[in-house]
Amino acid sequence: MGTANSSNILASTFYLTDIPGYEEFHHWISIPFCLLYLVGIMGNCTILHIVRTDPRLHEPMYYFLAMLSLTDMGMSLPTMISLFRVLWSISREIQFNTCVVQMFFIHTFSFTESSVLLAMALDRYVAICHPLRYATILTPTLITKIGIAALLRSALPVIPNVARLAFFPFCHSHILSHSYCLHQDIIRLACADTKFNVIYGMVMITLLWGMDYLGIFVSYVFILHSVLNISSQEGRFKALNTCASHICAVLILYVPMIGLSIVHRFAKHSSPLIHIFMAHIYLLVPPVLNPIIYSVRTKQIRQGIRNLLFPLKLSSSLM
Questions:
Q1: What is the model's pLDDT at position 109?
Q2: Helix, strand or coil for residue 23?
Q3: Within the chain, which residues score under 70 in pLDDT?
Q4: For residue 214, what are the domain limits?
Q5: Is residue 77 domain-resident?
Q6: How far apart (Å, rounded) are the C-alpha atoms in residues 222 and 55?
Q7: Total domain count for the chain?
Q8: Which sequence ranges are marked TM in the entry (predicted)?
Q9: What pLDDT does 118 receive?
Q10: Rounded distance, CA 299 to CA 294, Å?
Q11: Which residues are CB-contacts of 5 (< 8 A; sequence separation ≥ 6)?
């Protein structure tokens, strides 16, 4: 009997939500979304290509930046197909198993991005507080281990909550709040005791995001202490300037993430447009803005982009 119920759940269909009240404009609304996705994908792919091909960027800071670009794409790409299927009126239906896979990747890469930002904060701490030992501490082997640990630390805790969904009956409307699947969205449709999922999810978010946020905060306390000991004002500014892009990336991730969590838990009866707006900011803003910020703020990345766009001009000027 349990097997039959589980198979029925796995075969069940959910319905993604469009932008209510603007159905006749969906094709036009899809244009800015399409442009944002293209900007995000092209920006992150450009950074990955530059870091891979430019030997001058084979340093810990840029390896972590490449990890950030990969996690940015991992957050946004799982939602792209389902979003455009809804906006282009192809289909609002999504099968349970597809929904669970999409949900797993979204939550995993969200936590991974937070872990990568913590690693980048530690990178800045070592670069500013222990500059002479920078290359010996952050070796390529250690950076690889940090990347693998960040991914496993983010993926493994998500599995229990996602796996339990296969055993829940869904007897409500099957209509989701967004154009993609989130755990906190689908769990409200279950006709069962979801207390474990709710409590486990809150504990997981508190521990993972909380530990990352605390680690970033402590890193910057030490960084500020070290910067204040620099005698020259120019030296202080230069040291803090290397952290500006990372601070922006932290704000870009955490502010929409916290906002979406607050909306889901404390503003359940607010306008659907607020939920939709916050959900898309949460997934689209970091992949779009992070490459732009690092391209504008980082001289080596700007130079790499110029070399990529104008290789013939640069080579002829050198001759």
A1: 93
A2: helix
A3: 1-11, 172, 263-272, 312-319
A4: 14-306
A5: yes
A6: 30
A7: 1
A8: 28-51, 63-88, 100-122, 134-152, 198-223, 244-267, 273-296
A9: 95
A10: 9
A11: 167, 169
DSSP 42-87: HHHHHHHHHHHH-GGG-SHHHHHHHHHHHHHHHHHHHHHHHHHHHH
**Type of residue numbered 131:** P
Say what the pLDDT of residue 1 is.
Answer: 42
Q: How far apart are alpha carbons 18 and 177 in whole angstroms?
A: 9
pTM across the whole model = 0.87
CATH of the domain at 258: 1.20.1070.10
74 inside domain: yes
What's the token pair of residue 190? 């279950």
* Residue 318 included in any domain: no
Q: Which residue has the tokens 């002479």?
A: 132
Task: Show the tokens assigned to 153.
Answer: 């630390």
Query: Phi then psi for 240, rounded to 5 degrees?
Result: -70, -30
Q: Which long-range contacts (CB under 8 A, 24 or more apart) does 240-243 make?
A: 242/124, 242/127, 242/128, 243/124, 243/128
Q: Which residue has the tokens 């979801």?
A: 194
H-type alpha helices, 88-187: 96-129, 134-137, 140-155, 158-164, 183-186
Overall size of the chain counted in residues: 319
Burial tier of 211 (Cβ tally within 10 Å: 0-12, 13-18, 19+): middle
Q: How far apart are CA 11 and CA 14, in angstroms?
A: 10
In a domain, 4, yes or no: no
* 75-to-213, 244, 283 alpha-carbon distances in Å: 19, 23, 6
Q: What six digits make up the tokens of 83?
A: 């979003």
Residue whose tokens read 């339990």: 164
Q: Are the C-beta atoms of residues 162 and 106 closer than 8 Å to each other?
A: no
Q: What is the pLDDT of residue 268?
A: 61
Alpha carbons 201 and 183: distance in angstroms, whole number: 9
Residue 97 corresponds to which tokens in the numbers above? 């198993």
Give the integer Cα–Cα distance in Å for 39 and 95. Answer: 29
